Amino acid sequence: MEERLQKFLAEAGIASRRKSEELIAAGRVQVNGQVVRELGVKIDPAKDKVLFDNKPVKAQETKKVYIMLHKPEGYVTTAKEQFGRPAVLDLVQGVKERIFPVGRLDYDTSGLLLLTSDGDLTYKLTHPKHDVDKTYIAKLYGVPDEGALQKFRRGVVIDGRKTRPAKIQILEKEKDMRFCTAEIIIHEGKNRQVRKMCEAIKHPVAQLKRVATGELTLGDLPKGKYRYLTEREIKYLKKL
Fold first, then answer.
1. 30, CA 20 to 30 Å: which among 55, 62, 222, 223?
2. Which residue in 48, 53, 90, 106 is the catalytic one?
3. What is the pLDDT of residues 174-230, one digit of tens each?
């Protein structure tokens, strides 16, 4: 059965589907001895010979894995990083399968991060049309007034574009009002979005933690540790 080349690469564990598209466009993939740069190419895994960086790519036969990691601050989400900073994959070295993160968490943000060998699911969960609620607990400088909160909820302009409506509520205020703790729920996943939105209402983030993605919650998973998702959680993700 034929399937798109980028989907085959993702399912083989080479990279997420989106990253696989970049690898194809960069000329790093060959099909039957020919470099392929077009994204619409279809292959038959049973007949066609696919190479990535001149190494054969085989359909992944191992069981797909789905992991929840409590990412600490001070780790990058990318697999490799030019400055040599610690990466989240360093924390899951006991996993034999080739896995990659679903989306990203900033270097200085902690919390729930999904990791999987299922490139097709990664593509779907990170595609803009499949936006999933992401819940954060943020420590903010100062205490936003009602006007600032309403501005945040309606959406603010960051990087030249207005964000979609979001939710924010104050959970706790420090006595001297220098800081407050807020719950924030957004539907998008733009680069450093929560931090930029808080800066836009003049209350920058001092500390940020993602506690839920959709119905999946971090719970009491210790920082730096991971667990495998339950069958129910996997089924929920695939329904999104």
1. 62
2. 106
3. 999 999 999 999 988 888 999 999 999 999 999 999 999 999 999 999 999 999 999
